[in-house]
């Protein structure tokens, strides 16, 4: 294909090399342009010709901030969305420090504008950025306990860990086991509770006493300080001031059958509970009260059979001999926490076959074994000796009725036994003792003769309820009976020295510990009678109702060995403590010129004087 | 003889009893700690005779899983003082005689 205007060249022309060079010069610009120079006054060639050719132009939409247009725009946009920019600027401040710096610069040409109107940047857009969290570095040894690792350290660490694991295992094992135990054996659980209780027992006891001290403060004041001033105007008579009442929930239906003061602790006394009613025999209780806590017994023991009598050992105030309705005797040791007696007789070891009416501790025998006597309705008087851990019994005497009864057997061979109801041992003569019986006789016996009596007193017409030697005068004893009488005897004389008819059955009689001539008796109509032979030989100085309800029989009375108080027990299980008014414990007045003597001699003389008065008319009567 | 036998027995007992991994100190999160511990156990068991390769394996795996740069020390006795990133440290015993310390510091 060839164009019509194509040059036709010869071969030589075709072979000829033509050199062409490309330059940046504009080929369309005419060469050799001259201009007239007025300075030179001649035409000159222009060297500097613009070679630039512009083929395409386009205006951009970006407006510089500094330009008028930019300012106008920025003012407009700041009024429209000024707040937005502001907020953005604040939140993203940290991330775009550079931009804000720029914005601040932009502000400078706008001094008229309020300074708070920050402009984001020159081009009116905001770039956001954030950095990810970077963990701070820390220089430390991971294991402070060992800066230098070694084999033994690793070993120790393992051992420790193993130990810990084992302990944890044991704990896990122990837990279910404990639960099982509690489920299966409630008894064990109980004992655990008791253990925890016993820890606070002492504190609780002290607190209880303190509370009682507060509650019964007025009574305590009376006990200590009150002396009935009206006694001065009453002449010889006296009164009994009721102090504390001792009552226990479980003994409300039981009768007080015995009371005994502790020989060592003067505020402690033991009370036996049972029943005198043959038809209503049940359980018995033994309570120990202290005057410091009238609201609750210090010790309490429950027995299957009713308690009939009790006695404290004089040398071992923790030993308490008890006789039961079923004929058993027992010894309670207060030091031991058990609720059962330390020693108890049984059918095998010669217990009584009928109720035991009285027990009395004796002096230790030749082998230094503690021993006590008991008397029962079965007519036996038994000596019990504590040998190691058993009670050894020995019959001292049998109260055989024949030979002692004055009626004599009329052909009939009656195998009858006298039934003892009470006894008392002579204070000085060891072997001598007196036994009161149901038939009303009083036997004077000796431990040395088991078959016969030293003497017999035709004392009462009914059962002798209580018998007691005078604490001062060695010859004198007192007895009381259901035949309404209280009698005072000289054991060498067969007839009573004094006889008092109290109008109803007498339950108990007791000599006072402070005077040879004072004694007190309780009758079953609920009255207490206090006598002082020195003041009035015929009448009681005081006769006072001591029970709260009528029909309530008083059963027993005891003087406190130190304080001028008596305690009286009744059939409803209530114990009342009463204070003797001054008239009831009056000492003989001083005679002219004579010193007021004190001591047992004076007391003996006092009683002897009274007895001598009685003896002569008494002996006359006999004649 | 008896004594040596007993000693051997004791040693066997000890090895048996102490084969479990015992973390001595760690500030890692629970998940990470467990993972790292398992990794260490695997590595130590795999390269029981070559602590160097065990350490290398742990380091490389940790770098992959939790980002670089991890450091691992394995040995039976050494003292050390290190700088580490918080929440990126594990120090444990293993097999009764080995201690492994893994930490990150970039």
Automatic annotation (TrEMBL), chain A:
GO terms for biological process: cilium movement; determination of left/right symmetry; outer dynein arm assembly. One of its GO terms (cellular component) is microtubule. One of its GO terms (molecular function) is dynein heavy chain binding. Residues 87-108 have a biased composition (Acidic residues). Keywords: Cell projection, Cytoplasm, Cytoskeleton, Dynein, Microtubule, Motor protein, Repeat, WD repeat. Gene3D superfamilies: YVTN repeat-like/Quinoprotein amine dehydrogenase. Pfam families: WD40. Residues 67-113 are annotated as: Disordered. It is found in: Cytoplasm, Cytoskeleton, Cilium axoneme. The keyword Iron-sulfur does not apply. It comes from the Eukaryota. InterPro entries: Dynein_IC, WD40/YVTN_repeat-like_dom_sf, WD40_repeat_dom_sf, WD40_rpt. Belongs to the dynein intermediate chain family. Part of the dynein complex of respiratory cilia. PANTHER family: DYNEIN AXONEMAL INTERMEDIATE CHAIN 1, DYNEIN INTERMEDIATE CHAIN. Consists of at least two heavy chains and a number of intermediate and light chains. Interacts with BICD2. Interacts with CFAP45 and CFAP52. Interacts with CFAP53. This is Dynein axonemal intermediate chain 1. It comes from Zosterops lateralis melanops.
From TrEMBL, chain B:
The keyword ATP-binding does not apply. Pfam families: Dynein_light. It is found in: Cytoplasm, Cytoskeleton, Cilium axoneme. Its main location: cytoplasm. InterPro entries: DLC_sf, Dynein_light_chain_typ-1/2. GO terms for cellular component: axoneme; dynein complex; microtubule. Coiled coil: none annotated. Gene3D superfamilies: Protein Inhibitor Of Neuronal Nitric Oxide Synthase (3.30.740.10). Keywords: Cell projection, Cilium, Cytoplasm, Cytoskeleton, Dynein, Microtubule, Motor protein. GO terms for biological process: microtubule-based process. Force generating protein of respiratory cilia. Produces force towards the minus ends of microtubules. Dynein has ATPase activity. Consists of at least two heavy chains and a number of intermediate and light chains. Belongs to the dynein light chain family. This is Dynein light chain. It comes from Sinosuthora webbiana. The gene is Dnal4.
């Amino acid at each position: 294909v060839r164009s019509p205007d194509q040059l036709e060249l010869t071969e030589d022309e075709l072979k000829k090399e033509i050199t062409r060079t490309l330059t940046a010069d504009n080929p369309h610009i005419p060469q050799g342009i001259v201009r007239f120079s007025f300075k030179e006054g001649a035409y000159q060639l222009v060297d500097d010709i613009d070679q630039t050719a512009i083929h395409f132009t386009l205006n951009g939409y970006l407006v510089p901030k500094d330009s008028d247009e930019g300012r106008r725009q920025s003012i407009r946009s700041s009024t429209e969305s000024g707040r937005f920019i502001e907020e953005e600027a604040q939140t993203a401040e940290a991330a775009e420090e550079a931009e804000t710096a720029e914005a601040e610069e932009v502000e400078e040409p706008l001094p008229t504008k309020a300074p708070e109107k920050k402009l984001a940047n020159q081009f009116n857009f905001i770039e956001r950025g954030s950095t990810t969290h970077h963990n701070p570095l820390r220089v430390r040894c991971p294991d402070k306990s060992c800066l230098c690792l070694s084999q033994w350290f690793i070993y120790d660490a393992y051992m420790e860990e193993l130990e810990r694991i084992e302990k944890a295992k044991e704990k896990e094992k122990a837990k279910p086991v404990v639960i099982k135990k509690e489920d299966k054996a409630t008894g064990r659980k109980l004992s655990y509770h008791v253990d925890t209780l016993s820890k606070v027992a002492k504190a609780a006891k002290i607190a209880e006493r303190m509370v009682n001290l507060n509650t019964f403060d007025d009574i305590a004041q009376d006990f200590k300080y009150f002396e009935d001033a009206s006694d001065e105007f009453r002449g010889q008579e006296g009164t009994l001031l009721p102090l504390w009442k001792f009552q226990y929930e479980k003994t409300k239906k039981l009768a007080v059958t015995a009371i005994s003061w502790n020989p060592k602790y003067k505020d402690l006394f033991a009370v036996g509970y049972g029943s005198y009613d043959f038809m209503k025999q049940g359980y018995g209780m033994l309570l120990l009260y202290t005057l410091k806590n009238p609201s609750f017994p210090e010790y309490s023991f429950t027995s299957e059979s009713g308690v009939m009598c009790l006695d404290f050992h004089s040398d071992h105030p923790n030993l308490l001999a008890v006789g039961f309705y079923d004929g058993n005797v027992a010894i309670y040791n207060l030091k031991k926490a058990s609720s059962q007696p330390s020693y108890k007789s049984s059918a095998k070891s010669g217990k009584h076959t009928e109720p035991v009416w009285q027990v009395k501790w004796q002096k230790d025998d030749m082998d230094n074994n503690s021993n006590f006597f008991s008397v029962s309705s079965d007519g036996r008087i038994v000596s019990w000796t504590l040998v190691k851990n058993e009670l050894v019994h020995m019959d001292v005497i049998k109260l055989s009725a024949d030979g002692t009864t004055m009626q004599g057997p009329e052909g009939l061979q009656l195998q009858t036994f006298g039934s003892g109801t009470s006894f008392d041992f002579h204070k000085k003569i060891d072997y001598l003792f007196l036994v009161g019986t149901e038939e009303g006789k009083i036997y004077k016996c000796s431990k040395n003769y088991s078959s016969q009596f030293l003497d017999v007193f035709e004392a009462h017409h009914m059962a002798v309820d209580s018998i007691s030697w005078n604490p001062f005068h060695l010859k004198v004893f007192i007895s009381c009976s259901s035949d309404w009488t209280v009698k005072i005897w000289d054991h060498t004389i067969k007839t009573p020295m004094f006889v008092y008819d109290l109008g109803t059955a007498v339950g108990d009689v007791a000599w006072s510990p402070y005077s040879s001539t004072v004694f007190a008796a309780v009758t079953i109509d609920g009255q207490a009678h206090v006598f002082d032979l020195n003041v009035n030989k015929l009448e009681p100085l005081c006769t006072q109702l001591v029970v709260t309800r009528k029909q309530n029989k008083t059963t027993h009375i005891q003087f406190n060995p130190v304080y001028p108080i008596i305690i009286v027990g009744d059939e409803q299980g209530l114990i009342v403590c009463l204070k003797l008014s001054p008239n009831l414990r009056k000492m003989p007045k001083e005679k002219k010129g004579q010193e007021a003597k004190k001591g047992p001699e004076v007391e003996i003389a006092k009683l002897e004087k009274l007895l001598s008065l009685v003896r002569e008319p008494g002996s006359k009567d006999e004649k | 003889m008896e004594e040596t036998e007993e000693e051997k027995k004791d040693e066997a007992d000890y090895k048996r009893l102490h084969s479990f991994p015992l973390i001595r100190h760690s500030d890692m999160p629970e998940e990470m700690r467990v993972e790292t511990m398992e990794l260490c156990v695997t590595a130590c068991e795999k390269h029981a005779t070559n602590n160097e390769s065990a350490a290398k394996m742990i380091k490389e795996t940790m770098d992959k899983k939790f980002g670089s740069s991890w450091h691992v020390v394995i040995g039976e006795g050494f003292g050390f003082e290190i700088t580490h990133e918080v929440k990126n440290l594990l120090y444990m015993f293993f097999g009764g005689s080995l201690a492994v310390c893994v930490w990150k510091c970039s």
